[in-house]
Design a protein that fits this description.
Number of domains: 1
Radius of gyration: 25 Å
């Protein structure tokens, strides 16, 4: 019995006779090591977000990273509406107090679609593709006929990362009542 225990103990201290298996998966890079997306890295397109209730509607923005390296978006961008002459349309923004602010990693080499289809045709068509991000904003449209519609939206990226000008689809009058907008954070597309 003592001989068997000694053999087991000595065997545990002996060098292995074969090499241990090597891991075959590549670790996912940490978002902490990723750089922040700047306006020059991104392309964006806007389209109808779909129907909401209570006289509300919205715009969805799809952001794509056309640079050669991954980058991240996080937070809620600033929004400024501009009329057809490039003049600022006064607005105020409401942001939820208990909003999650995920870090969204945008894959390199993406180009946003040229346009988004009307939401009544296919809501799923206006979703970001994997590696892209979306951002929504909404407004009350009941008084839209009394408000000048926006032709462009200036998106101010968080952290002084620059501004993007995004054309508003001509068939979608972005004319918020009393200039009030509801803003939402960047979100990810399907995984």
């Amino acid at each position: 019995m003592l001989t068997a225990l000694t053999a087991v103990a000595l065997g545990a201290c002996s060098p292995p006779t074969a090499n241990p298996p090597i891991a075959t998966h590549t670790p996912v890079p940490s978002t902490a090591a990723q750089r922040v997306c700047h306006a020059a890295d991104l392309g964006a397109v806007a389209g109808e977000a779909g129907a909401a209730s209570g006289g509300q509607t919205g715009l969805v923005f799809i952001f794509a990273n056309h640079s050669s390296t991954p980058c991240t978006l996080q937070g809620i961008p600033g929004i400024q509406l501009l009329d057809g002459r490039g003049m600022v349309i006064p607005t105020t923004a409401d942001v939820g107090s208990r909003v999650s602010l995920p870090v969204i990693v945008l894959a390199p080499g993406h180009v946003p679609p040229a346009s988004l289809r009307p939401a009544y045709e296919d809501l799923a068509a206006n979703q970001p593709r994997p590696g892209e991000a979306e951002m929504l904003f909404g407004w009350h449209y009941i008084c839209a006929s009394r408000v000048a519609p926006a032709a462009m939206v200036q998106v101010r990226l968080p952290g002084d990362a620059g501004n993007l000008l995004v054309k508003v689809p001509s068939e979608l009058p972005v004319a918020p009542c009393a200039g009030q907008l509801q803003l939402y954070p960047f979100a990810t597309g399907p995984v």
